[in-house]
Design brief:
The protein is mainly beta. The chain contains one helix and eight strands; from the N terminus they run E-H-E-E-E-E-E-E-E. The two termini are 16 Å apart.
Length: 133
């Protein structure tokens, strides 16, 4: 195992930058160990989404990132994020492209050397689901 720590800067797209780190570092399997920072905008797929009819919402900030969790790898990522507003109201969903870093985002990934995460279509859910090799 190894860790990778990256600080993102204002204006960067959180999801795109995570994907970029994974490709550049050739990460086959890992998890988001920690992710702290703030966003100007949050773009999320909401709970209860139906395959092919995903409900994606855009929220204008500022927001604090209060929690992020997910499995990551070159074959795709599954990341959930929760943010809070300036009034302290929290909400979350599936991280999508378009989440723009406000001040900073400190990303810490834990990378596994002995497995690879892949995604395989599941007829029952309608989504590509985790397959561990």
């Amino acid at each position: 195992m190894k860790q990778i720590t990256v600080r993102l800067k204002p204006g960067q797209d959180l999801r795109k930058e995570i994907d970029k780190i994974i490709k550049e570092q050739q990460i086959k399997a890992g998890v988001i160990l920690s992710l702290v920072g703030s966003l100007n905008k949050a773009v999320l797929r909401m709970a209860g989404a139906v395959p092919g009819k995903d409900e994606i919402k855009t929220f204008e900030g500022p927001f604090e990132i209060v929690s992020v969790t997910g499995t990551v790898g070159m074959n795709d990522c599954h990341i959930h994020i929760a943010v809070s507003s300036k009034d302290g109201l929290a909400f979350g969903g599936h991280l999508k492209e378009g989440c723009i870093v406000r001040v900073t985002a400190e990303v810490v990934l834990l990378v596994f050397d002995d497995i690879e995460y892949k995604r395989q279509y599941n007829d029952k859910t309608g989504y590509d689901e985790l397959l561990v090799e």
